[in-house]
Design a protein that fits this description.
The chain is about 75% helix and about 5% strand. The protein is mainly alpha-helical and about 130 residues long.
């Protein structure tokens, strides 16, 4: 709090929060379904990091973070670089999912990724 982290430190903070939770859940589901667990874990890290950055941008979260002297992607990267970062995460998620074996889960994840979109002035998760 009160100290602006570097871009790398901010990403690591995001990964350590929500991303590890998503990754562990997806890895466990993959193992119990005899699906590629490393890829599921990697997807979870990407999606969880994306989710945390996006959540940090929400008005409610941003106000709370500002009041608590917590820096977010907008403070560290600015809007354009944040948009680019999130778009890169979306592209990386797509690459991983495209390599999954054909099954209902793959199709659901593809639909999830399609629902993630960016516009110049507004970010939307779903």
């Amino acid at each position: 709090r009160g100290e602006k982290p570097s871009e790398d430190n901010y990403i690591n903070i995001c990964k350590g929060k929500t991303a590890k939770l998503f990754a562990t859940i997806l890895e466990t589901c993959a193992i119990t379904s005899n699906l590629p667990s490393k890829e599921a874990y990697d997807f979870g890290i990407l999606f969880g990091t994306y989710f945390q950055i996006k959540n940090d941008l929400s008005t409610e979260s941003a106000q709370t973070d500002k009041a608590n002297e917590i820096y977010t992607a907008l403070d560290i990267l600015g809007i354009e670089k944040t948009h680019n970062l999130l778009d890169n995460y979306r592209k990386e998620m797509s690459k991983i999912v495209n390599d999954f074996p054909e099954n209902i889960y793959k199709n659901e994840l593809k639909d999830l990724i399609k629902s993630i979109w960016l516009t110049k002035n507004k970010l939307k998760l779903f």
